[in-house]
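Sample intake — D-ribitol-5-phosphate cytidylyltransferase
Collected from: Larimichthys crocea
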Amino acid sequence: MQSDCDPDRPAHPGVFPTREARKSDHQPAGCSVNFPVSVVLPAGGTGERTGLLTPKQFCSFLGRPLISYTVQAFERVPWIQRIVVVVAKENVDLMTDIIQRFQHRKVRVVPGGSTRHRSICNGVLALGEGEEEERPKVVIIHDAVRPFVEEDFLYKIAMAAKEQGAAGAIRPLVSTVIATTQEGYLDHSLERAKYRASEMPQGFTYDVIYQAYQRCSESDFEFGTECLHLALQYCGTNAKLLQGPPTLWKVTYKRDLAAAESIIKETLSGTACVITGGSAQAVTLADALQKAVGALDTELDVIPDLLGENARYLLKESNFIQVSVNGSSLSEVETLLRDLEAVNQAVLHPLVVIWMHLSTSDELSVSGRAVEPAAIMDLASAAKLQNILLYGIQLHQSKDAELWERSVLKVAEITSALIRERSPALVGQLLQA
Ligand SMILES: Nc1ccn([C@@H]2O[C@H](COP(=O)(O)OP(=O)(O)OP(=O)(O)O)[C@@H](O)[C@H]2O)c(=O)n1
Ligand SMILES: O=C(CO)[C@H](O)[C@H](O)COP(=O)(O)O
């Protein structure tokens, strides 16, 4: 049975709430932070334990580096002011390029140190540069390799840090901790229920974390693994500990990279929204698709447009299928992309948009190929910069019921595969069903 306190297992998508669920169930009421909060993301490690040449924070999922997911998790939080990303000197250009490519707006890059504490300290010092009034009241520190952090938990950490001076996430221990003798025999074991795993994020008032790093020893800088400990030892600040969700787990080994990718994919493949434009043919196709795709484990909502109440779908981290009937115009999908781009700050993960072009036999006989493949390619390239993956499917409406049913099943299969796999190679392609 999957335990929700096992940090080595991917969290079930069910514990990774949709944006809507987060808003209604988890967001603390009146969640406004009225003091300045900034963030340090240490990302200066080499990721030795993954065994890969690329440091794990720069490994890509769905065409986007892990660090960008983490940055966006913070950037979308309106009350977070600045984000300092600390990277090894040789990766400053790479990080700067990532910031430009994924249009991060609150980020400054700072060179790191030879250990995690040295890197974090550089980030804290960078936040203290300039006028005193520009300094944050609270600094949140979060490993760049923990991409699934949510606003509601950051809020709790920030508030507790302001009140207490320091606060940190904890999780129950998975294994019992034992001490060994020098000869490799059991010396004693700790009572597991009494201990907790210390995770991230952690929050500190600026003064506490600044002083802790001013006062700590070279040995702390070299071998220490715990910022909360420095706050206690050097500032006498007892951190408030808050149990965090299992999704806070740290990418440490190669298998964690696969787990992170699978969480991202699974979380986003559960739902899609079909926009019919109100045409009867499109509604018939959408209804048939709803049944067929449902059997393939993706739930479809069918709506005529994104106007009024339906605009809420734009904030749902959903995937979209825009059905166009006849004509070669991509204008409906262009409008959809514009709407999605307008809310892009709220989108943590890449979205799939499928342009489904339903053509009648008559139309084909008149105009031959209904859509220019180059047009959808161009549109897809622009959308990809916004982390939207645009695919096209062409479907011909047959009057033969059996043929039509087969086509719908094929479309359902392709749709499901595109939403689940998010293949970069197929972005901008016009597939035939
Ligand atoms: N000199 C260092 C070492 C680590 N980190 C960062 O601290 C976080 C947590 O550390 P860890 O998981 O230990 O990362 P690595 O040191 O990269 O991994 P490994 O120990 O396997 O080499 C990571 O985001 C990592 O990039 C850092 O900023 N500067
Ligand atoms: O849990 C933590 C702090 O409490 C850190 O994430 C942890 O110390 C990271 O470093 P490492 O992977 O080198 O132990």
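Post-analysis note: The pocket of ribulose-5-phosphate (ligand 2) is lined by residues 116, 143, 198-200, 225-226, 250, 252 (CB under 6 Å).
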